């Protein structure tokens, strides 16, 4: 079974440059991607959520820009969300938001934390 490895580098939270507005916060996660032996350096994905959403509300995760090919988007989305929530939110190590907190907004914050995760791509498909 093919294996995908994401080498996370950093996150820029809630940036107008990436599409944030009064209704949605758009953040961008930067990483290198490897699918089996093929490497894709300098890839990113956008994370979109409603302004004022609870820290546990769903996050929309885009396809990895800079990569075209078969992929399991649900597994990718889950790993990107874990990275994001590990930096920001109720269990965030960089910025922690307590239970019930709403309408907290910090723009253009840069969080750098290296992390890697691998997962088997048992269901190869490309939703793009």
Give an account of the 3D structure.
This protein has 128 residues and is mostly beta strands. It has one domain. 12% of the residues lie in helices and 42% in strands. The longest helix is centred in the middle third of the chain and has 15 residues, at 73-87. Strand 2 (24-35) and strand 3 (38-50) form a beta hairpin. Strands 4-3-2-1-7 form a 5-stranded antiparallel beta sheet, covered by helices on one side. A two-stranded parallel ribbon has the order 5-6. The protein has one helix spanning 73-87, and strands at residues 3-13, 24-35, 38-50, 60-61, 88-89, 95-96, 109-120. It has 1 helix and 7 strands; from the N terminus they run E-E-E-E-H-E-E-E.
Overview features:
128 residues, mainly beta, five-stranded antiparallel beta sheet, two-stranded parallel ribbon, 7 strands
Question: TL;DR?
Answer:
Helices cover 12% and strands 42% of the residues. It is built from one helix and seven strands. The strands form two sheets. It has a five-stranded antiparallel β-sheet, with helices on one face.
Topology summary:
Blueprint: E1 3-13, E2 24-35, E3 38-50, E4 60-61, H1 73-87, E5 88-89, E6 95-96, E7 109-120
